[in-house]
Write a structure and sequence with these properties.
17 helices; two-stranded antiparallel sheet; 55% helix
Length: 443
């Protein structure tokens, strides 16, 4: 039997930890480095001195990010691999042995690199994820405010659509300033609320004003306002970063005129307040306007790009992309036995699922009809994942092949589906030796 060839005699592997980095070259005796910045530079210089040009490592927590940035800046090829590829035999699990085993696999070319976005996209990702955390924290403070109001038997959040809207915030501020008269509090509401819900609002604002619950309401409001300021600061940093990225891309491509932007879809409640975001996203995507796709808004496009970047050619086909998202089932085969393997959806896959939920309620889109037809047979969860996969395929096609998507509408989709049913009936009739006769429609 022919031996497995060694493809790279200087391939290295690093077992990443919070305090130590164990590095082996081609399975040799590992060398241990610390995790301080000077020690990471020492590790980099040692690899360069040993003639290493490719190193692999596992994505362990956030500990790998600093080392990745140092090695990437030095021009080394850094491969982030899945831990399942480097799994060692039972009873041989130590950091030293793991680094040697990983380096041996890397030297034989048995490791496959995972996806890591480029440097600019990683910066955008950090800002966007931090902003998402602030939104979640702000939402928890809204719940605390609702709880404090409920403890005082003030049912304001039951009679108005949003406690954090203009009317709701005005009433909460007035309550904390000492106002208790429901009629005066009603005057702070929008005219539509005063005209349609005046009696309900007045009844909802009759409560017991206990000091401990007012204190809880005040602290929750202060925390919510703090997170709103944090979100605004994140928006400002995202704005500056997008301007820098799009300016560099435009300068490099020699593009002097911006592409014509289409009509912008209305932003959602949590969308970033960035002037000209739509045009910047078009520039970032090399002139592709992804908002023409159903379910795609500027906010959702920004969220997806902050995770995958704009170069989707890293996934050879749309099937590779949807499998990476966790929107396509895997397969497991042992002999003649095959079974499906459930894949967990990553962050981007969950974004597409949220977009699919918004399309499920549409009444005039073909994809909405697809969701309802599949949900009737397989259930809402499977229909949501299937629709999310369709959205991901459209996103990949536009980014890679520039395919223009035109929403045909629900009527065209239903007509196509009906024609498919007719073909099936005609085929079944031929198999049974029967003929079909249309029934005249009586008015």
């Amino acid at each position: 039997m022919k031996e497995l060839p060694v493809l790279d005699t200087r391939a290295a592997f690093c077992d990443v930890g919070s305090e130590h980095m164990h590095v082996s070259i081609a399975g040799g005796l590992p060398k241990v480095f610390g995790t301080f910045t000077s020690q990471l530079h020492e590790l980099r210089d040692w690899l360069l001195g040993e003639g290493v040009h490719s190193i692999a490592m596992e994505a362990t927590g956030v500990y790998w990010l600093s080392l990745y940035g140092v090695l990437e800046a030095a021009g080394l090829e850094v491969m982030m691999v899945n831990g399942r590829q480097t799994r060692n035999l039972p009873g041989r699990k130590t950091d030293m042995k793991d680094s040697q085993w990983g380096a041996t696999l890397h030297a034989h070319g048995l490791l496959k690199a995972g996806f890591v976005p480029p440097s600019n996209i990683r910066k955008l990702q950090d800002y966007q994820r931090l902003r998402t955390d602030h939104i979640a924290s702000a939402a928890s403070q809204v719940q605390h405010m609702q709880k404090a109001l409920e403890r005082m038997n003030v049912k304001l959040h039951n009679v108005i659509s949003s406690l954090m809207g203009v009317s709701g915030l005005a009433i909460v501020h007035a309550i904390l300033d000492g106002e208790r008269d429901p009629a005066k509090l009603l005057e702070l509401c929008h005219s539509m609320i005063r005209n349609k819900k005046a009696k309900a609002v007045i009844e909802a604002l009759r409560g017991t004003w206990e000091p401990e619950h007012l204190f809880a309401l005040k602290q929750a409001l202060q925390s919510w306002e703090h997170y709103q300021r944090q979100i605004t600061e994140c928006d400002q940093q995202i704005d500056l970063l997008l301007q820098r990225i799009t300016f560099n891309d435009t300068q490099g491509d020699g593009i002097g005129e911006k592409p014509k932007a289409t009509a912008v879809k209305p932003p959602s409640a949590n969308a970033p307040q960035i002037s000209g975001l739509h045009s910047m996203l078009i520039d970032l995507c090399q002139g592709k306007d992804l908002s023409i796709l159903p379910g795609h808004t500027d906010y959702s496009v920004l969220q997806i790009i902050s995770e995958v970047g704009t170069d989707l050619s890293k996934w050879p086909t749309e099937k590779h992309f949807t499998a990476w998202l966790g929107l396509a089932p895997g397969t497991s085969q042992s002999g003649k036995r095959k079974s499906n393997v459930k894949h967990s959806r990553n962050r981007v896959g969950r974004y597409f699922c949220m977009m699919a939920r918004s399309l499920a309620r549409s009444k005039d889109m073909a994809l909405g009809g697809f969701y309802r037809r599949l949900a009737a047979r397989r259930g809402g969860l499977i229909a949501n994942i299937a629709l999310a996969r369709k959205l991901a395929v459209l996103f990949w096609r536009v980014m890679v092949k520039g395919t223009e998507f035109v929403e045909e509408g629900l009527a065209a989709y239903e007509a196509k589906f009906l024609e498919g049913k007719k073909r099936s009936l005609r085929r079944l009739a031929r198999e049974l030796g029967q003929t079909l006769s249309p029934i005249p429609v009586t008015v």
